[in-house]
Amino acid sequence: MSLTIELASETVQSLASIANGKGKSTEDFAREILENEVLTAQRLEELRRDAQTGLNALRAGKFTDYATAEDLINDIRREGNKRLAESENSNK
């Protein structure tokens, strides 16, 4: 898909200067910035949903007691790895 946007000439000059310093074309650098911003927004929305799910579970009395902080951290890691694998599989 193609997208055309109008930017102030000063913005384009600054963008080109930064891109050049990174060894990238202005277009590639602008695309990278936009894609990173979209991914960040998506991840933030996922975090918000996860936080709400956790709050709902807490409100409903569904939570796990951990004997140690290490048990909690290990559980978080397991869940994170599981979600990462699911995410990678859905992107294939």
Question: Can you tag this structure with a few keywords?
Answer:
92 residues, mainly alpha, 2 domains, 3 helices
Description:
The chain has about 90 residues and is an all-alpha fold. The chain folds into 2 domains: about 1-60; about 65-90. Helix content is about 75%, strand content about 0%. The chain has 3 helices and no strands. The chain has helices at about 10-20, 25-60, 70-90. The relative contact order is 0.05.
Helix-strand pattern: HHH
Beta content comes to under 5%
Q: What is the straight-line distance between the termini?
A: 20 Å
What gross morphology would you assign?
elongated
The biggest beta sheet reads: none
Global structural class? mainly alpha
Helical residue percent band: over 70%
Instruction: Report mean pLDDT, rounded to a whole number.
Output: 90
Rg from Cα:
21 Å
> How many individual β-strands?
0
Tally of distinct domains: 2
Question: Secondary structure elements and their pairing?
Answer:
Layout: H1 9-21, H2 26-59, H3 69-90
Helix pairs in contact: 1-2
Task: Give a brief rundown of this model.
Helices cover 75% and strands 0% of the residues. The chain has 92 residues and is mainly alpha-helical. Helix 1 crosses helix 2.
